[in-house]
Write a structure and sequence with these properties.
The chain is mainly α. The chain has four helices and no strands.
């Protein structure tokens, strides 16, 4: 960490991936709810679906964050790769559903 009054001091404080992931979760969930609510209010099914997709993005980011925190806090080195596998299996399930015509 630099000790100066330059902008680099601020960036050195917030460049921790866990902190950035954690700070990004609340806005993503709020954005998802807002998209879904607005889409329902104006009768736009695409915006409602976009709200659902954004919520899933938040859940996937949560899986990554949980893996990072478990690894950092408890030395659970398996947690971060497990979070990656959760994301891979979710993606495969969605791809299968798309190609099967279920979406």
């Amino acid at each position: 960490m630099q000790v100066s009054h330059s902008p680099a001091l601020f960036s050195a404080v917030i460049d921790d991936p866990k902190l950035v992931s954690c700070a990004g979760l609340a806005p993503v969930v709020a954005l998802a709810a807002s998209k879904a609510r607005t889409g329902a209010a104006v009768g736009n099914p695409v915006l409602v679906t976009e709200g659902k997709v954004t919520f899933v993005d938040g859940l996937l980011a949560s899986a990554v964050l949980v893996g990072l925190v478990l690894n950092a806090a408890f030395g659970a080195r398996w947690a971060d790769p497990l979070a990656g596998l959760v994301i891979v299996f979710y993606g495969l399930r969605e791809a299968r559903a798309i190609f099967a015509g279920q979406h």
